Amino acid sequence: MKPKPTQKIMLYGNSILIETLTSKLQKIEGWEVKRREGGEVREVDDVNFIVADLCDATTSESLPMLSALPGVMLIGVDAIANTLIVLTGRTRPLNSTQDVLDVLKKAM
């Protein structure tokens, strides 16, 4: 029997970066990964993390709604500025998708 996921993450956006992260995160045992390309966000009441592509116009429009979700850590990634932003006001360099994975692992 497959163990129940311990962490649930939703990747939000329609970019190569989000697609790559989705592929990598789906390989991590114990994580349930969902992906939304844009539009209205549903089924997030049981999500621990949301990773949003800040360079995607649809995602940018949804940031106020995403950041208002209680109990969900919102992480923005900006491939143009090579930045990962945990939307608490702190930023750090983003050089690869591994940087995103490292932040998620530390946050858990």
Q: Could you give a short description of this structure?
A:
This protein is an alpha/beta fold and 108 residues long. The protein is 30% helix and 29% strand. It has a six-stranded mixed β-sheet with strand order 2-1-3-4-5-6, sandwiched between helices.
Helix and strand topology:
Layout: E1 7-12, H1 16-25, E2 31-36, E3 49-53, H2 57-67, E4 73-78, E5 83-86, E6 90-93, H3 97-107
Parallel strand pairs: 1-2, 1-3, 3-4
Antiparallel strand pairs: 4-5, 5-6
Describe the structure.
The protein is α/β, with parallel strands linked by helices and 108 residues long. Helices cover 30% and strands 29% of the residues. It has helices spanning 16-25, 57-67, 97-107, and strands spanning 7-12, 31-36, 49-53, 73-78, 83-86, 90-93. Helix 1 (16-25) links the parallel strand 1 (7-12) and strand 2 (31-36).
Jot down its keywords.
108 residues; alpha/beta; six-stranded mixed sheet; 3 helices; 6 strands; 30% helix
Number of strands: 6
Low-pLDDT runs of 5+ residues are: none
Please tell me the overall pLDDT.
Answer: 80
Shape descriptor reads globular
Structural class: alpha/beta
Q: What is the succession of H and E elements?
A: EHEEHEEEH
How far apart, in Å, are the first and last alpha carbons?
Answer: 24 Å
